[in-house]
Amino acid sequence: MSNQNNSPEDQILVIFGATGDLTRxxxxxxxxxxxxxxxxxxxxxxxxxxxxxxxxxxxxEHNNKSLKDAYSSAKDQKLxxxxxxxxxxxxxxxxxxxxYIALRKKLQLLRKKSSMQNFNxxxxxxxxxxxxxxxxxxxxxxxLNDESEGWKRIIIEKPFGYDLKSAVELNESxxxxxxxxxxxxxxxxxxxxxxxxxxVTRFSNGIFEPLWNRNFIHHVEITSAENFGVGNxxxxxxxxxxxxxxxxxxxxxxxxxxxxxxxxSMDSDAIRNETVKVxxxxxxxxxxxxxxxxxxxQYTESTIKGHKVKAYRSEKGISSDSQTETYAALxxxxxxxxxxGVPFYxxxxxxxxxxxxxxxxxxxxxxxxxxxxQEGCKSCNQLIIRxxxxxxxxxxxxMKTPGAGFNVQNVSMDFHYNDLSDVRxxxxxxRLLLDAMIGDSTxxxxxxxVFAAWExxxxxxxxxxxxxxxxxxxxxxxxWGPDIADELIEEADIGWRYPCAALTGDDNFCAL
Length: 512
Ligand SMILES: NC(=O)c1ccc[n+]([C@@H]2O[C@H](COP(=O)([O-])OP(=O)(O)OC[C@H]3O[C@@H](n4cnc5c(N)ncnc54)[C@H](OP(=O)(O)O)[C@@H]3O)[C@@H](O)[C@H]2O)c1
Prior knowledge:
The strands form three sheets. This protein has a nine-stranded mixed β-sheet with strand order 16-15-14-13-7-12-11-8-17. It has twelve helices and 17 strands. The chain is α/β, with parallel strands linked by helices and 512 residues long. Helix 8 (234-259) crosses helix 9 and helix 9 (268-280) runs parallel beside helix 12. The chain has two domains: 11-157, 3-Layer(aba) Sandwich (Rossmann fold); 190-368 and 385-395 and 415-423 and 446-488, Dihydrodipicolinate Reductase, domain 2, CATH 3.30.360.10. Helix content is 33%, strand content 20%. 41% of the residues are buried. It binds NADP nicotinamide-adenine-dinucleotide phosphate. NADP nicotinamide-adenine-dinucleotide phosphate binds at residues 17, 19-22, 50-52, 94, 126-129, 131, 157-158, 236.
C-alpha cells in the first residue's frame, strides 16, 4: 500500500456520534488496540461530539466501562487509564452553524494544550446517514476544511447514499468544499485481513493466476450469512434491506478484488483503478433479468434449537407489513475478456443457519473424465476463501480411494489463520483508522466505485419496488433462505455450498 509515512503525524480525531453503538463497539476498541501497539502518535486527541449533555469525565467513564469489560488485566487497566486521558467531549447540535464555531474553538484549545505544531484533523461521521451532507458542509463553512495549517480529512460511514441519485447528490455537496483525497468512504470489509489476503493469494502465487479466468473457472459463488436477525438496528435496517446493507457495498467490493486484473503496483490508485474497472464491467441487469436472476426473501417465524424466533415483521420497530428484504440472491456476469460467460452467484441474508462469509471458486471439470462419476460432484475442484469465521483457505480435489479399482474421493487441503497462533488478526476498523491517520486511502471506496456499484444495483432496487410480480419469499428463520434460490443455479448437480462455521464443514444441516 502506498504509505509514504507509516507512522501517523500528531492529530485530533473528531468523532461525530461519539455516544453511539459503532463508537463503543468498534471505534474505541480499535483505537485502544492501536494505543497498545504504540501506533498512535504521542500527541493524539479524540474529541467526541454528540447531542447528549455529558462532560469529558462522563465520556471517559462511558468508554472506561466498555473497555474494562473487554480488557481486564492489570497491565491493560493502566493502559486504559492513559488512553482515556486522550478523550474529550463537546456537546453540539450538529445541524446548527454556531456549533461549528464552538467546535473550532475547542479544537484550537486542544491543539494548544497538546502543543501540536500542525492543525491536523480527522472528522469521523458515525451518525445517522441523514447528517452526512450537513456535517461536511457546516465544517467547511467554519473553515474546518482549510489545510493551510495542517491536513483535514473526513471519514464517512456507510451507507454512502440510499440509491444512485442520492449518492450523486451527496457527492455533489461534498465536492463543493472537500477534495476527493480528503474524503475517506469506509467499507469495513476492505479493512478485513482476509479480504486483503485475496490480493496476496492471487498475486503472490504463480499457481492461481493462470487458472483465474473463463477457461478454467466454471462459476464463482459468494455467500455472506448472518445467523441473527435485525437486533436493535430495526430503524436503520427496515429502510435499508439486505441489498443496500450488504450487496451494494461490501460484497461488490469483494467481487472487485476477486475479479480484478493485476494492478501495476500496490499504489492506492493502481488498485482502485482495477477494482473500479470490474464494477464498471458488470453486465447491467435488465428488467427481465431482475425477474429471473434475483431473489428476495424475508425471514418468518421459526424454532431454532428449541428457541422460538420471531418473524421479521414481528420484530420491535418493524411494521407488520414491511416489504424489506432480509435475504437477497443474485446471478450476474462480468463482461470482459477474463470473465466472459462465467456466472457469479451472490447471496446474503439474516437468520440463516450460520454466520459465514466466503468466496467459492468452482473450477471446470476435466475435459474427459476417466473415472467413475462422483455423486453430486460436477465442480469437484473448489477453492474456498473464507473471510470469516475460521478464516482461511481450502482447496478441494479428487484423490484415489485406496483399494481396488480407480475410485475417486474428494479431499481437502486447508489453511486456517488460527494455525498462526502467535499472530492476532486485527479488527478491520483498526487497520482503516490507522490508514486514514496516515492518509492511505487504498482500502477506502473511491467515488467512481461507489457510483458503479449503485448503477448496477439500481435496476434491482427499482424492480423490487415497482414490479409487484416479483415475490418477496418468506423463509423460516434458521434456513438457507427461500428454496427458489436453488433455481438461480440452473445446471444439474450444481448447487449452493452449505458452509458450516468450521471451514472444512460443508453440510446443509451442520449449523442446525
Ligand atoms: N453499529 C454498527 O455496527 C455499524 C456498522 C456499520 C455502519 N454503521 C453506520 O455508522 C453510523 C452510526 O451507527 P451507530 O450504530 O453507532 O448509530 P447509533 O447507535 O444510533 O449512534 C449514532 C449517534 O449519532 C448521534 N446522533 C443521532 N442523531 C443525531 C442528530 N440528529 N444529530 C447529531 N447527532 C445525532 C447520537 O448521539 P447523541 O444522541 O449523543 O447525539 C448517537 O450516539 C450509521 O450511519 C450506521 O449506518 C454502523
